[in-house]
Amino acid sequence: MVGLNVWKGIAVQDGLAPHCRRVMRAVLEGRVVTLLGAGANLCGRPPGTAWEHGRYLPSGAELAHHLAARFDYPDADLQDLVRISEYAYVMTGSGPLYDQLHEVFDADYAIGPLHRFLAALPGRLAAGGRRRTCPLIVTTNYDDALERAFSEAGEPFDVVSYMADGEHRGRFVHRAPGTDAVVVERPNEYRALRPDERAVILKMHGAVDRTDPDAPWDSYVITEDHYIEYLARTDLANLVPVTLAAKLRRSHFLFLGYSMRDWNLRVILHRIWGEQKLKYKSWAVQLRPSELDREFWELRGVDVLDIPLDNYVAELDAMLDELLAEPAER
Length: 330
Description:
about 35% helix; about 15% strand
């Protein structure tokens, strides 16, 4: 069994199996929303391997270093992605920043084990004689590795992506399988999404658009101004399509690949948890969290697990096999 350190809610001596059983049972019930941060893209990358365009996706720090070099960022802190992006935005305009981000993410990067695990879930549940539960996955990443994982698994999915700039600024865009993108004009009336019938990938901070050479739906919440404007839109019901907002309010959250340094994590929590009427236990997987990270999670009632994400995904995968081998409850 993989070693485990936790600070709240899970005894060290219990090991990881009881936790994974609780999480996967909630998954089988359709009550877990997985939230993927930049660290999730490192899952499956060999240790010590640097980011390489078209091969491995960049971490937040690697993207920050890349943009700092491209836009001659003058300060010493080369890991502050938000500040560096703001500098590029102010000094050169949104166009050069978007061009550079599109160049970074317009590639068929390796699909990691976490992406494949999530994409395979509906099919594995159905093959095991269980109710075909479809995941709602929230991501603050801009790449399309998750979408390609679902396509390779033969699983239909919807993509709902936020527009940070341009004509449809401040709205989400919905792309259903085999259809053109539709701007969600009235989120609290929009019912074209059925998360209980088909997987949904909710890209809270936008995404690269690789479907059109002109990239009309390119969108990146990445600068200080973007985050300030995003935080100002505090009413989830008036931003996210109604069926997704309902599921977010009544689900456990599993945070993978986030740290306190990530602005996007704090924005996500502010937006989602502020509107939950009932409380559902949440979990965060973070390797070697700092004291600040531990306090941050504890204050929000989140169990934090200090374990490599690759190991955690492998443990969840094994637990799913174990649960599927048990007689289905009637």
